[in-house]
């Protein structure tokens, strides 16, 4: 019979990285770093770990396997049907918090379009409690995760099931945020195999990947409060096009901001 330590070594051998090996091992066995690893592993531990490793070897995202992941210090529940948050999106949140602190509004109206798991909306609320945050998501499946995360983490964020291209906020918006679908439709089949497990609805940006930026620029310019700001995450090579879309819709003070890798990641504009 294998020991618990044998199972850890198996995970180290088959997982893509040592970090993932540790995460899958802890999830499958429930064994912590201070537990006794010399004792025998149960057949259930072995079976659960084998299943996790097989899924990961097949390209299934580790975040779906373990059922969650941490983002901006928040423990999110994740699973099939909701987009997995990326570290790149932290750039959007950093800029949002910078704006809110500088504006110093008593109760700023913040709207997160295409919220998915709620990672952006909840990070803003957690770091800036005075904000009135609304998270808009079109997918019923993703909204289930959004509402669960709001409840589990215990933040006062309003979840709205609706299409960002049609949503009308009941009050003027001080800060509009979105990480919209921005992958050109023809590029979807060539994405990483892990990404192909994520919902197409959260990835497909239309023929040129810019459909949602056009919709946001036209629909939300009139909904912004005086001096209201828009922050939009973008994909590779989209900086100039998104800036042009916003300028054409009448936005001003349009600037581009790089992520930690030095790549254009967020466009900021004033309404």
Task: Tell me about this structure.
The protein is an alpha/beta fold and 271 residues long. 37% of the residues lie in helices and 20% in strands. The protein is built from nine helices and nine strands. A seven-stranded mixed sheet has the order 5-4-3-6-7-9-8, with helices on both faces. A two-stranded antiparallel ribbon has the order 1-2. Helix 7 links the parallel strand 4 and strand 5. Helix 1 packs across helix 2 and helix 2 runs antiparallel to helix 3. The longest helix has 15 residues. The radius of gyration is 21 Å and the shape is elongated. The termini are far apart. The mean pLDDT is 96.
List keywords for this structure.
271 residues, 9 strands, 9 helices, alpha/beta, 37% helix, seven-stranded mixed beta sheet
């Amino acid at each position: 019979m294998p020991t618990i330590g044998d199972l850890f070594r198996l995970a180290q051998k088959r997982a893509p990285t040592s970090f993932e090996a540790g995460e899958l091992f802890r999830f499958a066995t429930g064994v912590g770093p201070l537990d006794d690893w010399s004792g025998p592993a149960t057949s259930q531990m072995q079976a659960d770990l084998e299943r996790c490793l097989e899924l990961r070897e097949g390209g299934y995202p580790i975040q779906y396997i373990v059922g969650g992941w941490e983002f901006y210090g928040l423990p999110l529940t994740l699973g099939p049907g909701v987009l997995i948050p990326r570290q790149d999106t932290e750039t959007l949140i950093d800029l949002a918090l910078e704006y809110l602190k500088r504006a110093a509004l008593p109760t700023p109206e913040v709207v997160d379009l295409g919220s998915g798991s709620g990672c952006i909306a909840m990070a803003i609320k957690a770091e800036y409690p005075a904000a009135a945050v609304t998270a808009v998501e079109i997918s019923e499946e993703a909204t289930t995760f959004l509402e669960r995360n709001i409840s589990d983490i215990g933040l006062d964020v309003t979840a709205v099931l609706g299409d960002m291209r049609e949503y009308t906020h009941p009050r003027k918006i001080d800060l509009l945020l979105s990480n919209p679908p921005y992958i050109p439709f023809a590029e979807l089949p060539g994405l990483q195999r892990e990404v192909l497990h994520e919902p197409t609805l959260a990835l497909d940006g239309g023929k040129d990947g810019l459909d949602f930026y056009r919709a946001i620029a036209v629909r939300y310019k009139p909904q912004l409060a005086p001096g209201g700001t828009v922050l939009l995450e973008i994909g590779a090579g989209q900086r100039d096009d998104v800036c042009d879309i916003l300028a054409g819709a009448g936005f001003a003070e349009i600037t581009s901001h790089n992520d930690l890798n030095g790549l254009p990641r967020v466009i900021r504009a004033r309404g």
